[in-house]
Specification:
Radius of gyration: 22 Å
Distance between the termini: 42 Å
Strand order of the largest sheet: 6-5-12-11-10-9
Number of helices: 13
Low-confidence stretches: 1-22, 65-73
Structural class: alpha+beta
Mean pLDDT: 88
């Protein structure tokens, strides 16, 4: 097994003054679908997509395949359901699966406000978004929850739903039910089973996105116990900061209550998926689910504890790696853009600047053309605004400060700002601004699979990063013909 370094790849040349280190300290990530204990999964082609590619995925909590048992119970959940936390799209046209999942979370844990609760299963479909489909689409989604729950011997409220695909198309319920009956008997606990589920999530993705990290948490006797966190994701278009910005399921065999799990997921989301932009559009279906089975036997994770920090780092590492995979696989993309910002007044300000850079269409176009046009980066920095108060609070900014700062421009001092692209220092405000650099060498460095843009603001100790991709002719062609 080869560990994947979660740190940004950079061959930055020395500059006049030292840069602060980029964010790090996370556990290593393997790009494998290693299944945490307590879950079964699978995926297949049910017939939703005209292409015949895989389009139905199921993940079951604590399941055991029913060999020769009650035929009406293809898979039987064992024990209590898993804790689950969710991030949903902030688009004001949420799809039927988003609304249904939020309602189910609210039913199982009213204190969670529809953002955390309990679940026995996740049903995911690709090929049809079931968004903007009216009451009929809502009924379709509810019917599938009932069908799945009936086969599992649980309640519909203990199921989650995710869908992706063309907006305005209803789910083919009969086709999906037939797929359920074929898929449930062959769910398994192995790597290939979770990989199949991840593959079934894909739409225009060119790669299957998977990531695994491990950490050690104490068991009830204090003995270190290995805990696994594994994530699968899809999403290469309609991706822009706003919490979630794609579909993802993260699984862990740690023991965590839903409210604590939600805090860990919000922290990871604010630093990873909310720092991801492909094209500036946030989908109607964006959903991230984090499930905890408790199967590893570790002691319950208390909020704000050392075990919570360790588990949070593993969740962050998996989320970060998935976000980077999504950016690198953006529709039509040839280059991953990573923007590292240091020296901000605090981390939210640094993340806002990094977000502004990777979201800029001009920066994206320059990256595609291997054009070291630092002026476009500087202009993007100048547009940076903090997110609204709700997202600032999610990033643990005190509510009073969040209310005051939400949506406001980031405070900048151009005389302290420094900028480098692909390892070449190009601007230093304290040295008079533009710096001489070898343009052809910079162009050659930008031809690598990842272009790293580093910005030092010189105003504090805050740091952050964001991920994007270049804007290409292929992106335009693909989206010009998406439904035809």
């Amino acid at each position: 097994m080869t560990a994947v370094d979660t740190r940004p790849v950079s061959a930055e040349a020395p500059v006049k003054r030292s840069w602060a280190p980029a964010p790090g300290g996370l556990p290593p990530v393997e790009r494998r679908a290693l299944m945490p204990g307590g879950f079964l999964a699978g995926g297949l082609a049910a017939g939703i997509k005209r292409s015949g590619k895989p389009d139905l995925a199921i993940i079951v909590v604590g399941g055991a395949t029913a060999e020769g048992t009650n035929p009406d119970r293809v898979v039987a959940p064992l024990g209590r359901p898993a804790a689950v936390a969710a991030l949903f799209t902030r688009n004001q046209m949420p799809a039927a699966p988003v609304r249904l999942s939020s309602e189910h979370l609210l039913a199982t844990e009213p204190a969670g406000g529809g953002r955390f609760g309990w679940t026995h299963a996740v049903l995911a479909t690709s090929g049809s978004a079931n968004a903007a489909t009216g009451g009929g689409g809502e009924a379709d989604q509810a019917s599938l929850a009932e069908e799945l729950a009936g086969r599992l011997g649980t309640s519909p409220q203990l199921t989650m739903a995710m869908s992706t695909g063309i907006i305005g198309t209803r789910l083919p319920v009969g086709t999906i039910i037939s797929g359920l009956d074929r898929l449930l008997p062959v769910l398994g606990p192995g790597e290939s089973d979770l990989f199949a589920a991840a593959t079934a999530l894909r739409t225009t993705d060119s790669t299957t996105k998977i990531a695994t990290a491990t950490t050690a948490l104490p068991n009830p006797g204090g003995v270190p116990t290995v805990v696994r966190v594994t994530g699968i994701a899809k999403g290469v278009g309609m991706i822009h900061p706003g919490m979630a910005t794609m579909l993802a399921v993260l699984l862990t065999d740690a023991t965590v209550e839903p409210a604590t799990l939600a805090g860990l997921l919000r922290a990871a989301g604010s630093r990873t998926w909310n720092q991801l932009s492909v094209d500036g559009d946030t989908s109607t279906n964006d959903t991230v689910l984090l499930l905890a089975s408790g199967a590893a036997g570790a002691a319950p994770v208390a909020p704000d504890s050392a075990p919570a920090a360790a588990l949070g780092d593993a969740i962050m590492a998996v989320a970060r790696d998935l976000a980077r995979q999504q950016a690198a696989d953006g529709e039509g993309a040839t280059t991953l853009i990573t923007c590292e910002v240091t020296g901000a007044i605090d981390d939210p300000a640094a993340r806002a600047v990094a977000r502004a850079v990777v979201s800029s269409s001009l920066v994206k176009a320059a990256a595609h053309g291997r054009d070291p046009n630092w002026g476009r980066v500087l202009a993007a920095v100048g547009t940076a605004h903090l997110p609204d108060a709700e997202l600032l609070e999610t990033a643990r900014v005190p509510s009073g400060d969040a209310a005051t700062r939400g949506g406001r421009p980031v405070s900048l001092d151009v005389d302290r700002l420094r900028l480098a692209i692909a390892g070449h220092a190009m601007f230093d405000g304290a040295a008079g601004g533009p710096l001489p650099f070898d343009r052809e060498a910079a162009r050659a460095a930008m031809a690598r699979p990842e272009v790293v843009i580093r910005i030092e603001l010189g105003s504090g100790t805050g740091s952050g990063e964001a991920f994007g991709c270049d804007l290409t002719e292929a992106y335009v062609r693909e989206n010009a013909e998406y439904t035809t």
